[in-house]
Amino acid sequence: MMDAAAPDNAWQRMHHQVSEALQSPGVPIPANLQQDFLQFQYDNNLGQLRRLNIVTFTAFLLFFIPDGLIVPDMLVPSLLGRCILFVTLLPLALLLMRRLRDIRRIELLLPALALLASIFWHQILDHSESIYAPQYFFAGVVFVIVPSLGMRTDFSAGVWFSGLLSALLVYFAFDLNHHDAMWTLIYLSVYLPVLAFTLFFVWHNCQDDRRMFLLTLLEKTDAAELQEANAKLWLQSHTDTLTGLSNRSLLEDRVQQGVALARRSRTKMAVIYLDLDHFKPVNDSHGHVAGDQLLQEVAQRMKGCVRDSDTVARIGGDEFVLVLSTVQDLADAIAVAQKVRLALSEPFVVLSETTVEVGCSLGVAMFPDHAANSESLIDQADAAMYRAKQSGRNRVEAARQ
Predict the structure, then answer these.
(1) CA-CA-CA-CA torsion for 252, 270, 277, 246, nearest 10 degrees?
(2) Which own/partner contact pairs does 334-339 have at CB distance under 8 Å and 24+ positions apart?
(3) How far is 88 from 109, CA to CA, in rounded Å?
(4) How far apart (Å, rounded) are the C-alpha atoms in residues 190 and 184?
(5) For residues 73 and 88, what is the distance between their CA atoms, to the nearest angstrom?
(6) Which of 323, 317, 352, 306 minimizes the C-alpha distance to 243?
(7) Which residue, 95, 258, 287, 334, has most beta carbons within 10 Å?
(8) % helix / strand / coil in the chain, to the nearest 5?
(9) Of the ranges 101-110, 139-148, 389-398, which is most confident?
(10) Are strands 359-367 and 354-356 parallel, antiparallel or unpaired?
(11) Of 265, 260, 233, which Cα lies nearest the Cα of 249?
(12) Angle, vertex CA 150, rays to CA 146 and CA 156, nearest 5
């Protein structure tokens, strides 16, 4: 059951989930993050596994040298068999690494090679006449270690392969020593500590990679939470809380950007200053809730009259400004202003059933026709809007040269 301090958004929930996993025994990966963990393992370990397989195959090939020194009668079969396996299995392993996307399957290539190599080596020693062959098989302990080198995702697979190889090698030792129980016990005394070390190494690798994945995820969630918080702060400081439109601060920035772009590209841009007509009676007659609903609907209608690249801002109680990023001439800007005026002349429904009507007066100013900078451009549009008010309201006036 979640307490009162339970996380309240997606990033916080993930942060909480990852933190709990890090503190749990075994560092379990949550079920909903399993695929992400496997992809993380694939991205981080594929190159290492590829190099590890190349080195292991090369070591397997070069093992013909001690074979030639200790069991010289099997040098030719050893060299021939190792060369055949090297030139066939190494390209196959590298091809599978490119084709397989499941890191768990890729990690099994190295233990499979160790299993194949131990069988091959047993056959070499079993056919040798050298008296040193049984003792030489002590070197088979290396096959127990091999699975631990690349197993970093599934500890149970590491246990299974290590146990299988150890049992197989003990049986081979038993066979090479003519079923001598004493020699088998000696081999066990060597293999069991190595097996224990191998399993610990595999467990440590798995735990380490799980922690690394979860810590990486924790850093990402922290960064995402910070970014989200910054975005919320930016939104709060640059938007009008009632209508969701840009506020005065963002408006000034957009006008400055528009002027700079128009100056650089030698084009024109426009500012339209709008003030609602007869808005105060709506507030007085129907209350502030009705007034707020009216302003919200006004904002939506204005946004529907302009392009996505244009800006609609609320800078006062019933005052709005539109920034048209690019226009051909004054006639285009006036056409947009008329479109807005007509849209706001239609009746509004507030408080679910009350119909109210307002109008608007608009002033249009162009850059560079009416002003040389952003501040003057807004002032010119404001002055044109007041002339529209004085001329009878519900009309559009252009700034004067």
Answers:
(1) -30
(2) 334/364, 334/396, 334/398, 336/270, 336/272, 336/305, 336/306, 337/272, 337/362, 337/364, 337/396, 338/396, 339/305
(3) 14
(4) 10
(5) 25
(6) 317
(7) 258
(8) 70, 10, 20
(9) 389-398
(10) unpaired
(11) 233
(12) 90
pLDDT single digits (tens) 7-17? 456 777 887 88
The single residue listed with the structure tokens 């560092």 is 27
Closest alpha carbon to 90 in 57, 63, 122: 57
Residue 389 to residue 387: CA distance in whole angstroms: 5
pTM of this structure: 0.56
Per the listing, tokens 């105060």 go with 280
Scanning 304-349, the segments in alpha helix (DSSP H) are 330-345
**Residues of CATH 3.30.70.270 domain(s) within the chain?**
248-398
Question: For tokens 């590491």, what's the residue?
Answer: 158
Q: How far apart are CA 223 and CA 1, in angstroms?
A: 27
Each as own residue / partner, the long-range contacts of residues 248-255 (CB below 8 Å, 24 or more positions apart, any chain) are 248/313, 248/315, 250/311, 250/313, 251/311, 251/313, 251/315, 251/321, 251/323, 252/374, 252/378, 254/311, 254/313, 254/323, 255/323, 255/374, 255/377, 255/378
Q: Work out the pLDDT band at 5, boundaries 50, 70, 90.
A: very low
pLDDT for position 61: 92
Q: Which helix (H) or strand (E) holds 36?
A: helix 34-62
Fold of 248-398: Alpha-Beta Plaits (3.30.70)
Q: Give just the sign of the alpha carbon dihedral 274, 277, 283, 286.
A: negative
- Can you tell me whether residue 398 is helix, strand or coil? strand
Q: How far is CA 262 from CA 33, 252, 255, 342, in A?
A: 49, 15, 10, 28
